Amino acid sequence: MAHTVVMPQLGESVTEGTIGQWLKKVGDSIEEYESLLEVLTDKVNAEVPSPVAGTLSRVLVEEGAVVAVGTPICEIAVEGEAEGSAEAAPEPVETKTPEPQAEVEAKAQPAVPKESDEGRGRYSPAVRRLASENGIDPSGLSGTGSGGRVTRNDVLKAVDEGTRLSPVAAREPVSSAASVASVPQVAGAAANVEDGDEVVQLSPVRKTIAERMVRSKMTVPHAWLMVEIDVSGLVALRNRLKEEFKAREGVSLTYLPFMLKAVSAALRKMPMVNAQWNGDSIVMKKRINLGVAMATERGLVVPVVKDADRLSIIGLAQATQDLAKRARSGRLTMADLSQGTFTVDNTGAVGTVLTYPIINAPEAAIVTMESVVKRPVVVGDMIAVRSMMNCCISFDHRVVDGAEAAQFLGELKKTLEGYTADSTL
Question: Is the per-residue pLDDT at 43 higher than 60?
């Protein structure tokens, strides 16, 4: 019979995903492991490979629909299998925007038995963390997940509606994580649409980006610092090596791998910055996995260079340019987008000199490298023209204090200013 493909679990705490884009249409031939569709979750955007070779015979979920992990999303006819032998296939899932869909599903399933009180207490780590950070009592929520389980979307909806801890929970002692006050929700001002204006509906990718950014700014206490760095020696070194490097390695020598190397060294000396907030604890990450923010035609993605501290400048240049190439072509995998511990944003590539980046939660910080600009500076008792670059850091003040963030930038500055025209890679 036809092979039924279900929504995969794209992460330890992911319970649902949004169908971003079908990369194949009904009737298309598919090789095993060839990408079938793009799925968006609150953690990653990833392409889902086909588990078998065959022909896409039926699409059960349209683009934009939000479905739970394990839900059938399509069928693939495998060559050699008898037609008509398949069991009755599930009806296609009607496309809805995420919030209306949750409401319709909740109303359409009144007869489905909810989990027992004991069962409903078994919330996923992601749900517990999100609920505690926003002062929400999940036991008082109506779950829209399988069997009435409370999902992340249920908690987010409660936050939007201003739900607080239940009276019983409010009388009980709460942990430091749950003591964070609920963030008041303020409705955004409606746009003034006039004749001739074009209204562009949010794509699934843009909607996911928007939700992540709002959640980070509303739940993470951002703080910000900046240092200016004299990279004249680094500029001279790159100018001396870039043509030879391109010919030998096959990739361009940019400033990004030098930045990643310097960030890795700084994180080794300041491990508190390479950490993640975990509700009532802080997770100190052993590995240094650097996310690199990249703009693509389909939106912002943050692929991760794993164990960046173990790579040379050459290795970092090859790794980042491979990720950038696959990001532009839409061929990143879930593995490319997961396990980041710290994020670097090369905002200077678009000409900026000062940026206030949004933290990629639950990471503790994100740093930017701005444009390299020649300007007059005081060197000793003289004025000289130097190549200067600003580096900005946004950090989670629950995890990192200002002194630690300043020390981190100091280490970064020391490494980048240490390069000379004669340095070796």
Answer: no
Chain segment 62-76, per-residue pLDDT in tens: 988 888 888 999 999
Confidence category of residue 180, pLDDT binned at 50, 70, 90: very low
Phi/psi for 215 (5° steps) reads: -60, -40
Q: Do 221 and 396 form a contact (C-beta atoms < 8 A)?
A: yes
Domain boundaries, the chain: 3-95, 100-183+203-207, 222-417
DSSP 398: T
Closest Cα partner for 40 from 233, 211, 240, 271? 211
What does the angle CA 250 – CA 255 – CA 256 come to, to the nearest 5 degrees?
Answer: 85
397 is catalytic: yes
Among candidate residues 3, 309, 401, 422, the one labeled active-site is: 401
Which of 3, 222, 230, 397 is catalytic? The answer is 397
Upper half-sphere CA count for residue 55 (Cβ side, 13 Å)? 10
Edge-to-edge strands, sheet with 3-6? 3-6, 72-77, 54-59, 29-30
CATH of domain 3-95: 2.40.50.100
Q: Does the pLDDT at position 182 exceed 50?
A: no
pLDDT at 332: 81
Look at the block and give the residue holding tokens 């995998």.
333
58 strand-pairing partners: 75
Is residue 17's pLDDT more than 60? yes
Q: What is the pTM of this model?
A: 0.67
**401 has catalytic annotation:** yes
Asked if pLDDT for residue 220 goes beyond 70, the answer is yes
Q: Which CATH architecture has domain 222-417?
A: 2-Layer Sandwich (3.30)
pLDDT at residue 103 above 50?
no
- The amino acid that residue 92 corresponds to is P
Say if residues 164 and 135 touch (Cβ distance below 8 Å): yes
